[in-house]
Amino acid sequence: MEKTLAINSGSSSLKWQLYEMPEEKVIAKGIFERIGLERSMSTVKFDGEAHTREIDIIDHRQAVLLLMDELIHFHLIKEFREITGVGHRVVAGGERFKESVLVTQTVLEEIKAISNLAPLHNPANAAGIEAFLKLLPDAVSVAVFDTAFHTTMPQAAYRYPIPNKYYNEFSVRKYGAHGTSHMYVSREAAQYFDKPLESLKLITAHIGNGASISAIDGGKSIDTSMGFTPLGGVMMGTRSGEMDPSVIPFLIENDPELKTAQDVIDLFNHQSGIKGVSEVSSDMRDLEIARDQGDKNAILAYEMFVDRLKKYIAQYFGVLNGADGLIFTAGIGENDRKVREDVVNGLSWFGMEILPERNVRGVVGEISTPTSRVKVLVIPTDEEVIIARDVEKFKKKTAFL
Ligand code: AMP
């Protein structure tokens, strides 16, 4: 039986899904959470049961080894070679990768070489790919790029207003990220609307540990909040989101602990966002516990988080000149009733009204009132199935080689 693994390494998580292909049957799925943090967890789900355990996971490489152990342990596979394909989400493809590719040593080196475009992710993605290449050398290995979906952005959106030389010679531009997720939920939304995707204007809000908002016109990304790297845009778990770049030299001049621009960027990537302001955690669940206990920093971090989401969503009403739907997805977007309520209520002027009875935990589908001009939907993202489908395409191609 042919099995395919879809691997989605986030900055602090590694999600996996084991498929029987080409049926797209999910045999099992799981997640390693809080990688590199205290109390890391592994969850394996199959046959309607979830098996969770706390286990120290230092990095993504270790998570891959643990994953293979779990598959054998739970009798999901008997031997490694049952897995004939592995698809990897890769965050940054730069201008080089406009679609999914078969992983070769050269491709792997290229993914590493553009790590400056996704410093939290590409190294984790590359480490995952390498670990699998060693463990499963005969499996078809495919890289699926998060930036590919955003290659439809017009120049006016993706160029930065700096001298042309920096685009022409250094490829400095907005690339965006989370493209597979924005693409998937926009396609699913068209099914909810029962209208052709080409006729819809959508704002998709992928809000997880990393977060990005996209403006999607007729199924094509025309703008997105992340930029040259996934540091841009809204506030995130550990990332600042958009900043005035003048802060960088100012901090280097004034804080003796920060010596280089890279030191400041590391600070913005790893020590900022919800973590930096709350001084509690980068995780929304921890933040909300502290907020509800009256912790002032946690309250501020939560308010800032909602504020930045509102600003970007409001911008995209402008970019699209109106929208049919706002879609919430990813860890926070799918599960956090309060964030959705605060964002939508704060943007009611745009014609959105939430239905409290629908805006509950575990909801999928519409959460707005029947009279809401802009429909608000919760759609669980499924980047994994898109990845598995791309692996399948390459399995067919390589079978003819
Ligand atoms: P992701 O990166 O998509 O896996 O999302 C991770 C984020 O989702 C973390 O900040 C989690 O705290 C948050 N999250 C997951 N489940 C919940 C929940 N039930 N309520 C609030 N936030 C959640």
Number of strands: 14
The top-level CATH class of the largest domain is Alpha Beta
Compounds present?
adenosine monophosphate
Helix content: 25-40%
Strand content: 15-25%
Order of helices and strands: EEEEEHEEHHEHHHEEEHHHHHEHHEEH
Number of helices: 14
Q: Give the end-to-end Cα distance, rounded to a whole number of Å.
A: 21 Å
Low-pLDDT segments, ≥5 res: none
Mean pLDDT: 95
- Secondary-structure-based class equals alpha/beta
Biggest pleated-sheet summary: 8 strands, mixed
Main location: cytoplasm
Binding site for substrate: 89
Subcellular location: Cytoplasm
InterPro entries: Ac/propionate_kinase, Aliphatic_acid_kin_short-chain, Aliphatic_acid_kinase_CS, ATPase_NBD
Furnish the topology, listing elements before pairings.
Blueprint: E1 3-9, E2 14-20, E3 25-33, E4 41-46, E5 49-54, H1 60-73, E6 83-90, E7 101-102, H2 105-113, H3 122-135, E8 140-145, H4 155-158, H5 165-168, H6 179-193, E9 201-207, E10 211-217, E11 220-224, H7 247-254, H8 261-270, H9 273-278, H10 284-292, H11 296-320, E12 325-329, H12 330-335, H13 337-345, E13 365-366, E14 375-378, H14 383-399
Parallel strand pairs: 1-6, 6-8, 9-12, 12-14
Antiparallel strand pairs: 1-2, 2-3, 3-4, 4-5, 7-8, 9-10, 10-11, 13-14
Helix pairs in contact: 1-3, 10-11, 11-13
The site of adenosine monophosphate has 13 residues, from helix 10 and helix 12.
Overall description:
The protein is of the alpha/beta class and 401 residues long. The chain folds into 2 domains: 2-152 and 383-399, ATPase, nucleotide binding domain (Nucleotidyltransferase, domain 5, 2-Layer Sandwich), CATH 3.30.420; 194-378, Nucleotidyltransferase, domain 5 (2-Layer Sandwich). It has 14 helices and 14 strands. The chain has helices at residues 60-73, 105-113, 122-135, 155-158, 165-168, 179-193, 247-254, 261-270, 273-278, 284-292, 296-320, 330-335, 337-345, 383-399; strands spanning 3-9, 14-20, 25-33, 41-46, 49-54, 83-90, 101-102, 140-145, 201-207, 211-217, 220-224, 325-329, 365-366, 375-378. The strands form 2 sheets. Strands 5-4-3-2-1-6-8-7 form an 8-stranded mixed sheet, with helices on both faces. A 6-stranded mixed sheet has the order 11-10-9-12-14-13, with helices on both faces. Helix 1 packs across helix 3. The protein is globular, with a radius of gyration of 21 Å. The mean pLDDT is 95. The site of adenosine monophosphate has 13 residues, from helix 10 and helix 12. Catalyzes the formation of acetyl phosphate from acetate and ATP. Can also catalyze the reverse reaction. Keywords: ATP-binding, Cytoplasm, Kinase, Magnesium, Metal-binding, Nucleotide-binding, Transferase. ATP binds at residues 15, 206-210, 283-285, 331-335.
